[in-house]
Write a structure and sequence with these properties.
alpha/beta, Rossmann fold, 2 domains, two-stranded antiparallel ribbon, 9 helices, PGP-like_dom2
């Protein structure tokens, strides 16, 4: 295996979090007296962090003003903190896949656009926190994915460098992040990607699940 470290996206790659995100958005929109959004809309809105999710929920003919955005973020944070993990599910193959990756002895990290206040409890609640030597969230570095900073930060924390790192994600944001940082990138097809299928041509490999990713990485 040529890789010395592995970084994983969280939402849409390891965990299906849309049920909880949709519930927090539903309660936020009720608080703000705004029209509801469907779970499908929420699935398409996820990927660029909490503020963009809230902004997309609140955008109708025009973007929300600063005051509505501030109220939206405060309400979302309150509700998501209460429901985070309740309806979250593992995607198929993730539990076995993480165990198999862990067994390789390579250092593993999570690199997510989810704010740290929600990432850390979610990893604990789902029982996978112990797999990761580093967790880089949407507010750990000054810039979120697709900026390379979170991936560079993770590689440094793992004692690796981007050229020796494999990033595994579900979206174009992960592909861009990896390209910007200089890492290889595999994508899973089952995540969110703003409602578009991830294109095999855009990443180094489209892999059905984390186990397939490991088998492919062994021969890379
Ligand atoms: O919070 C988001 O928008 C998505 O998070 P992710 O980077 O783990 O997919
Ligand atoms: Mg994702």
């Amino acid at each position: 295996m040529k890789f010395r470290s592995i970084t994983f996206d969280l939402d849409g790659t390891l965990l299906d979090t849309v049920g909880d995100l949709a519930e927090a958005c539903r309660l936020m929109l009720i608080d703000l007296d705004q029209a509801p959004r469907s779970e499908t809309e929420i699935r398409h809105f996820v990927g660029r962090g909490m503020a963009v999710l809230v902004e997309r929920c609140l955008t109708r003919e025009s973007a929300p003003d600063a005051e509505l955005m501030a109220r939206g973020i405060a309400a979302f944070q309150r509700h998501y903190a209460a429901v985070n993990g309740h309806r979250t599910e593992f995607f198929p193959g993730v539990r076995e896949g993480l165990a198999a990756w862990h067994a390789t002895g390579l250092p593993l990290a999570v690199v997510t656009n989810k704010p740290a206040a929600f990432t850390e409890p979610l990893l604990e609640r789902t029982g996978i926190a112990h797999y990761f030597q580093a967790v880089v969230s949407g507010d750990t570095t000054p810039h979120r994915k697709p900026h390379p900073a979170p991936l560079l930060h993770a590689c440094a924390a793992l004692g690796s460098v981007p050229a020796d790192n494999l990033h595994i994600g579900d979206s174009k944001h992960d592909i861009e992040t990896a390209r910007n940082a200089g890492s290889a990138v595999y994508c899973v097809p089952y995540g969110y990607n703003e409602g578009e299928p991830v294109k095999a041509a855009d990443c180094d490999a489209l892999v059905a699940d984390l186990g397939v990713a490991l088998r492919l990485a062994h021969s890379a």
